[in-house]
């Protein structure tokens, strides 16, 4: 039987340019990359990030993105929410993009490297529990800096 995992996304900011988060390994709590999703738009397909909650992500082969994970659960009718590479919200229709850092113009950088690390951490895992949590207040800013959340104090 394959090992199960827990991945936690702490969303730290959301605005017109996207929803930004820090991705932590639930096994040891270590932050290992950042995330970028569409801005919140009432969970509407193709234009919104999914609502915070607890989901199951299962290993999946996407014809477009290759080996990845598909988010499943109470998605409010949403489907095909994947983890994949991309640098800006223009690269997503509701999926979770991964990067090593945030870059200017509300983007993530080194997405391929971050995605490869994500897949390395989930090697041998058929599914994991995904917890998405909003830690900013009133949709504008977070009380914590990105560097402190990534452990770069």
Structure explained in plain terms:
- This protein has about 150 residues and is mostly beta strands.
- About 10% of the residues lie in helices and about 40% in strands.
- The chain has helices at about 110-120, 145-150; strands at about 5-15, 20-25, 30-35, 55-60, 65-70, 80-85, 95-100, 100-105, 105-110, 125-135.
- It has an 8-stranded mixed β-barrel with strand order 1-2-3-7-6-5-4-10.
- A hairpin with an 8-residue loop joins strand 5 and strand 6 (about 80-85).
- The longest helix has 11 residues, at about 110-120.
- The model is unreliable at about 140-153 (pLDDT under 50).
Compute the number of helices: 2
SSE pattern: EEEEEEEEEHEH
Number of strands: 10
* Biggest pleated-sheet summary: 8 strands, mixed, barrel
Broad structural category: mainly beta
Mean pLDDT: 88
């Amino acid at each position: 039987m394959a090992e199960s995992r827990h991945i936690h996304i702490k969303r730290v900011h959301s605005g017109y340019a996207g929803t930004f988060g820090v991705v932590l390994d639930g096994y040891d709590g270590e932050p290992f990359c950042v995330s970028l999703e569409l801005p919140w738009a009432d969970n509407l397909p193709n234009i919104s990030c999914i609502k915070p909650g607890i989901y199951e992500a299962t290993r999946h082969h996407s014809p477009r993105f290759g080996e990845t994970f598909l988010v499943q659960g109470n998605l409010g009718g949403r489907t095909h929410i994947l983890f994949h590479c991309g640098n800006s919200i223009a690269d997503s229709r509701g999926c979770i993009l991964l990067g090593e850092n945030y870059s200017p113009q509300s983007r993530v950088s080194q997405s391929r490297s971050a995605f490869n690390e994500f897949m390395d951490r989930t090697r041998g895992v058929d599914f994991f529990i995904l917890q998405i949590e909003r830690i900013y207040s009133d949709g504008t800013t977070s009380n914590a800096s990105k560097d402190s959340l990534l452990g770069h104090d």
